[in-house]
Amino acid sequence: MTTNGTIREGDSRTYTRTFTNEEVQQFAELSNDTGYHHLVADEDGQVVLHGLLTATMPTKLGGDLNYLARTMEFEFPRPAYTGVEITCEATYESVEKQDDRTYLEVSFVCETEDGDVVLRGRSEGAILE
C-alpha cells in the first residue's frame, strides 16, 4: 500500500497469531462443530483448529480495509493446531477503482512458523468507501 492508504496491485499485508485451546472450544460452541479432534487434546496438549476458525485470519485482513467479500475459496492442505504461530499473507492480485468502491481480487496463504501451508485461497469483493 502507498503511504496514503491506497492499495495497488501486487501489494500485500500480513497478520500473525497463535490460537488457544479455549478459542477453539468457543468456536466449537458457536459453530456447533464439536468434532472430537477439535475438543480432545493430543499428547502435546493441542487440538486441531476448525478450518473456518483459521479462515478468520484473511477475513481479519479484509475487515481492516472495510472489504466486503463477494466470493471466497479455501483449501486446507494440512491441519493447523493450537499453540502454533500462524502468519497469513494477503496479496492484492487485481485492484480496480470504480465510483465509490475499489474492487479487489485477493489471494492469501497461511503458514505455520515451520513453513507448513495450512490454508490458501482467493477472494473477490469490494472496499466500501
TrEMBL record:
Q: Where in this chain does the record put each FAS1-like dehydratase domain?
A: 7-118
**Highest taxon above the source species:** Archaea
Q: Name one Pfam family in it.
A: FAS1_DH_region
Task: Identify the InterPro entries for this entry.
Answer: FAS1-like_DH_region, HotDog_dom_sf
Indicate what this protein is called per its UniProt record.
Dehydratase
